[in-house]
């Protein structure tokens, strides 16, 4: 019986293709940050006596995430500077003024990741560029994947991340009253994102 | 805390640097009573620059925000004013003032010019602000140039009270920093008023008004566009400056600039006190 060379190539190709199809990494999915279920909280020390907490209420952005390829994680977050809230109107105006955030000149605070490494199960080290008060600085933060799953009503895939990090505001040209108000500001950024339609 | 964060940057540092600048110019200029360089320009510029640097450090170059740009424009205006008075013996010509004011407006309003206003809106706003700014410059020059002995203490007191009122208005309008900077300008002006008399020469000389109008207009712009100084109060404070030009007639007119300033201070203080939540920095 003549063994056809072409037929043997064809037969060999099938398992190779199957291997490629079933083991190739899936493309990362894009998740849109849900500002309503995300939080950006900051802590600053007041006169060396107490810690004061405030928050930003308008967050947006995207997360590229693939459970099978954790280091393909990519995060892009935008926070509206004038969404800062400290529960007192005069203080909110002061924080938005040229003394601190200068929200009229720098309306958006952004973080864009440039590299991610996984340090544990659901634990990441995220390097990226933080733009605050018009000054961009590279920083590395630790982030934790809080969880993932389907929304119980809509069935939309959700994923959540949280990161705690510290920013020195004087490195972002925000040096007013750095003394009575601490230069270092601690942030908690908790993001919930849903799979893009 | 009071000394480090309020007295030193807002009062003592600007006063000290203004005094050194004033004395330096007066000592370097050997023309005595014939001197045409009063040093007031450099003193105001030095006081403002010192206060700004003490508060937030030396601003980076190129400047990153409107307050940093005001720092450099004020320094330039001070040097131009000093040089013009020293070498030309007269005030800066309107063309130079227009260039300085135009630069101030474009640099201070960079963000809305680039991102908010249409070309037509930008042109209209800039034209209106140029007219007001030049008028303020004229009024300040008229006020400072009046060397009549009669009423000079009243005129000096009105100028200082007005600048202090502007500082208070800005402080209650969401920005302690802008308020402190205006207070620093008031301190520098006080040093010139007192130091000039002690040195036995004319207190204010050609070229001094330009830096004062530049920094006053710049801080008002910052308060209106980037803090919460509302349109009414900004107009009232600008009107106060304009009325200084009328004060040269003497009599009751010398006190008139304080009226709109007092209204503005009262409005901002009431708004601050009546805010729904208490906040005293």
Please report the total strand number of chain B as a whole number. Answer: 0
Strands in their spatial order, largest beta sheet of chain A: 1-4-5-7-8-9-10-11
Strand content of chain A: over 45%
Q: Give the overall pLDDT of chain A as a whole number.
A: 89
CATH topology of chain A: Lipocalin
What can be said about this structure in brief?
The complex is a heterodimer of chains A (197) and B (281). Chain A is mainly beta and 197 residues long.
Annotate the secondary structure layout.
The complex is a heterodimer of chains A (197) and B (281).
Chain A: H1 5-23, E1 29-33, E2 39-46, E3 50-56, E4 59-65, E5 74-80, E6 84-85, H2 89-96, E7 108-120, E8 123-132, E9 135-150, E10 157-168, E11 184-195
Chain B: H1 2-28, H2 40-56, H3 66-88, H4 94-108, H5 110-115, H6 119-145, H7 152-171, H8 176-198, H9 208-226, H10 231-244, H11 258-273
Question: What can you tell me about this protein's structure?
Answer:
- The complex is a heterodimer of chains A (197) and B (281).
- By secondary structure, chain A is mainly beta.
- Chain A has one domain: Lipocalin, CATH 2.40.128.
- Chain A is built from two helices and eleven strands, in the order αββββββαβββββ.
- Chain A has helices at 5-23, 89-96, and strands spanning 29-33, 39-46, 50-56, 59-65, 74-80, 84-85, 108-120, 123-132, 135-150, 157-168, 184-195.
- Chain A has an eight-stranded antiparallel barrel with strand order 1-4-5-7-8-9-10-11.
- Chain A starts with a helix and ends with a strand.
- Chain B is mainly α.
- Chain B has one domain (2-147, 176-228).
- Chain B has eleven helices and no strands.
- Chain B has helices at 2-28, 40-56, 66-88, 94-108, 110-115, 119-145, 152-171, 176-198, 208-226, 231-244, 258-273.
- Chain A binds chain B through residues 47, 87-91, 93-94, 96-99, 102, 104-106, 133-135, 170, 173, 175-177, 179-180, and chain B through 1, 4-5, 55-57, 59-60, 64-68, 111, 174-178, 222, 225-228, 272, 275-279, 281.
């Amino acid at each position: 019986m003549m063994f056809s060379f072409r037929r043997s190539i064809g037969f060999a190709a099938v398992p190779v293709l199957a291997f490629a199809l079933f083991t190739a990494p899936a493309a990362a999915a894009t998740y849109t940050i849900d500002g309503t279920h995300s939080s950006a909280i900051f802590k600053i020390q007041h006169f060396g006596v107490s810690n004061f907490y405030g928050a930003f209420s308008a967050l947006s952005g995207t997360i590229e995430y693939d459970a099978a390829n954790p280091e393909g994680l990519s995060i892009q977050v935008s926070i509206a500077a004038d969404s800062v809230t400290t529960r007192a109107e005069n203080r909110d105006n002061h924080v938005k003024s040229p003394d601190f955030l200068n929200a009229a000149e720098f309306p958006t605070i952004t973080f864009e990741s440039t590299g991610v490494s996984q340090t544990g199960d659901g634990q990441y080290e995220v390097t990226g560029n933080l733009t605050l008060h018009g000054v961009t600085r590279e920083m590395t933060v630790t982030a934790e994947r809080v969880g993932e799953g389907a929304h119980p009503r809509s069935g939309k895939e959700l994923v959540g991340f949280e990161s705690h990090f510290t920013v020195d505001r004087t490195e972002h040209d925000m040096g007013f009253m750095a003394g009575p108000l601490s230069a270092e500001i601690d942030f908690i950024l908790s993001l919930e994102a849903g799979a893009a339609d | 805390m009071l000394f480090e964060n309020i007295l030193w940057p807002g009062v003592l540092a600007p006063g000290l640097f203004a005094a050194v600048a004033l004395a330096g110019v007066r000592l370097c200029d050997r023309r005595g009573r014939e001197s045409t360089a009063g040093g007031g320009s450099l003193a105001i510029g030095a006081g403002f620059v010192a206060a700004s640097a003490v508060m937030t450090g030396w601003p980076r170059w190129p400047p990153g925000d409107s307050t940093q740009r005001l720092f450099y424009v004020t320094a330039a205006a001070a040097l131009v004013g000093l040089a013009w008075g020293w070498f030309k013996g007269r005030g800066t010509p309107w063309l130079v003032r227009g260039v300085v004011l135009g630069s101030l407006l474009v640099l201070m309003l960079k963000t809305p010019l680039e991102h908010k206003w249409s070309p037509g809106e930008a042109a209209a706003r800039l034209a209106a602000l140029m007219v007001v700014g030049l008028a303020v410059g004229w009024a300040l020059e008229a006020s400072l140039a009046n060397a009549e002995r009669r009423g000079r203490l009243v005129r000096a007191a009105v100028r200082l009270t007005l600048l202090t009122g502007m500082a208070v208005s800005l402080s209650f309008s969401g920005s302690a920093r802008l308020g402190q900077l205006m207070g620093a300008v008031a301190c520098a002006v006080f040093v010139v008023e007192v130091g000039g008399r002690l040195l036995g020469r004319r207190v204010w000389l050609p070229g001094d008004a330009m830096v004062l109008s530049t920094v006053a207009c710049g801080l008002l712009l910052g308060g209106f566009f980037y803090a919460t100084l509302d349109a009414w109060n900004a107009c009232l404070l600008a009107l106060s400056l304009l009325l200084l030009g009328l004060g040269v007639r003497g009599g009751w007119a010398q006190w008139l600039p304080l009226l709109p300033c007092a209204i503005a201070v009262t409005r901002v203080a009431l708004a601050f006190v009546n805010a729904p939540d208490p906040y005293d920095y």
